[in-house]
Every structure is written in structure tokens, then in C-alpha cells.
Amino acid sequence: MSRPAGREPRRLTRWWRQRSLRSRLTVIAATAIALSVFVAFQVASELLGWELRDAAENQLRADSRVLATNAERAGLAQVQLPPYPGSGRLVRVILPDGSTRTPAGQPALPPVSEHAGRVAQGASADLMESNDSEEGYLVYTLRAGDGAVQVAQLADDSPINQFGFGMLLIGLLCVVGGALVGRAVARTGLAPIDRLTAAAVRVAQTRDLDADIPDEGGGEIRRLIQSINDMLAALRDSRRAQRLLAEDAAHELKTPLTSLRLNAELLIRLDRRGTLDSALPAESRTRLLNDLGAQVAELGTLVAELTDLARGDVSDENTEVLDLADVVAAAATRARSRAPDIEVALDVTSAWVSGRPAALERAVLNLIDNAGKWSPADQPVQVRLCAEDASVVLEVDDAGPGIDAADVPRVFDRFYRADSARALPGSGLGLSIVQRVVDAHGGRATVARSARGGALLRVDLPAAAPPAPTSQPTAGEDTAAS
After folding, report:
1. How many CB atoms lie within 10 A of CB 27?
2. What's the whole-model pTM score?
3. 149, β-bridge pairs
């Protein structure tokens, strides 16, 4: 069975890809030198051949002129032709009747060609031609008297052959030397890569992200090392953030879990003794169960916020152009359903942004919830939305006591809660999530004191062009189309 035509190239490609970079560079260097030597040999051979042929033709012309001069003086039939010395040029005299004269002992030349006969008849002055016989003569015919003289030389390829053999030897030496030089250059050039690989393996084995790779080399190597060091720094920051998140989460979970455990142990102990009804009056039991429910709800909220914060991204939902006024209205509705006693006053206008609806709604809801904790019962939480130049501005303020100046720099930190907020429900993650959502949308979140004396939380987001309205066909168009 014959193999598919494309199998061998694929096998060769697979073999090539399996070679090391050092081996590839060595092969490429040797191949490049071999090709260069081959091209140089071809060009030099052609040039040498042209030069030798030109020199031979000039010598034949000179010898022919001397012989023609002697023939014209003595006559073609009487001109003296010295015996052939055994090597060198060959001569021949073409008489008017077409016969020829040659020196004694000279090897036979090829028959007079038709073109050479025309020169002897006076059709042209001279002719340079190459004989195609095995001997390969180069023959020059020159008009002399009523006939012509010919001087020939056996084509000698030995200089070109010797030159080719020498070039072959030089080429082989160059290829071997090129391979060695390519190997050395590859080893030297890839030494930083080898050290970089060893350092990366060491980091992977020891999990030591604090060990930066030494910066060495230049150009691409330096940029590669800097990129890996930046990646290690990002991994260090990520690990540090994870550790801090775990520590903060453990600290925040400890209090509600401890309270839940104590209350549950109390109920279990009383129930085992059979004194639950007598030891806990109905009012105390109701209060205890309410506390348990509140603690469970607080734990659920804390776990949900921790899960959202630990994801590292805002959401998997796609970004779309949306009217933030719709998002604010939805968040206010959810806030009212969660805390019916909180009044939310909306003053919003249409403002378009590019973002993720669910993430933005979560951020707005956290802002309203935070303001609702501080706003007095008779004072609403005010939510304002408008467009200013190239930004969309969202402001949420309350009439509470405001934020102390010492707490302002840490308002958006994870788990941070001011001393005045310790007694209020919450995890300290709401505003941190707001900050992360706003940063992910290219915006900015700030805090200030509102005109009512409370806190004013402001969010600035880049504005987006509203989508083009879709044209609706008129009744007449519908009728016409039908």
C-alpha cells in the first residue's frame, strides 16, 4: 500500500518541532552556510568559465592573425606549417577548393563546418565556434587570401574542476565550522533562557514567589525576565490578598459562629434536661430564636459577600450598553423590599453607561443599604443620578451622623467598620464590593459629607453613547408590504 502524500511532510514537521531550540539553531546555521557556499560556488564557477573562455578566444584570435598574415604572404598552398609539437594549439588551412592542409603529426580536427566554409568563401570575415564532439574543440576561423585559416584549442575543464573540488572542501569545512559556531552561539545566546528556566523550575518546586529572577541580558531576554518577575509579583499580591481574605473572613465569622454555638448549646442542654419550657419563658425563647435567625441571616449575608469578593472578577455576564437609571430603580425596589422601613427618594435622569447590569445593581444596592443603616427613620435616603460631561454621576446620601475624618481613607477597605458601626448589622464588605465594581467599570468612588450632615457616597462612571433607536414600520408600510 502506498503512503499518503502528506504523511511524510507532516512527519518531518513533527520531527522538527520535537528538536530542541539549540539543535534547530545549529541546523539552521549549517544549512545557511551550505546554501551560501553553494551559491558562491555556482557564481564563481560561471565567472571563472567566462574568464577562461574569453582568454582562450583572445589567444586564438591572436594566433589566427599571425597565421593569416603568413598565408597571405606565402600563399595558402605554400605557407609553411611547422610539425605539431605534441601539445598546444591546432591549426588548419582551408584552400579555395575546400581542401585543407594541416601540420604533420597533428591530430585530426573535426570536419570544416558549413559556417566555417562560408568564411573561406568570403561570406564573412571570421567565426568563433565551439565543437560539440567528445573532444570539445574551440575553433576560430579567419578569412585569409582566397580561403581561410583555422586555429583550434581543446576545451580544458580541469581548472574549473580543480576549482570546484577546492570549493567543495572549503564548503564542507565551512558547514562543519558553521555548525560548531551555531552550536556555540546557540549555547551562549540561550544561556539566559536556561538560567531563567532553572529559576522558574525552582519557583515551581519550592512555591517561593519571593525569589525574583535576576535581571540579565538585554532586549528580548530582559523583557522576558521582567515579564516573569511582574507575573511573580502579581502572584505574590494574589497570594497575599487570599491570605488576608482568609484571615479577615475567619475573624469576621468567629463572632457570629460563637454566638450561634453558645445559643445552640444552651437550647440543646435545656432540652436534654427537659427544662426548656420552665427555664426559658416564652418571651425569652422567642427572643433567643429571633437572635438565632438574625445570626443565621448575618452569616448568610457574610458568606454571600465573601463569595462574591473572593471570585476576583465582577461577574461572568457580558458587558452591554444600558441605562443606569433602570439599574438604580431596580436596586431601590430591592432595598425597599429588604427593609420596608427605609424610605428611598429617587431623583434620576436617563444616563447611559457600558457595564454589567447585575454587578452595577449590586453596587447600587450596597450603597443604599449602607445609607439606610445611618439614615433616621423620618429622613429618606436620597439617590441622585445625572450625566455630567463625559461621566455619569451617582450620589447616595443620608441624614445620619456622617463619617469621621479618620475613617474616610478606610471606608472602602474590606471588613473595615468604624467604631460607631460595630453595633450595627453588616460585614464591612458592602462598600468594598462597591469599590471593586466601580474600578472594574473604569470609574471612581469617593466619600464626602452631605448637605444634610450625613455621608455622601459618589460614583463616577464613564458615559456611553445611547444605542440607536430601532425604527418601527408604520401601519401604512405594513399594509404596503403585505
Report:
1. 15
2. 0.45
3. 93, 142
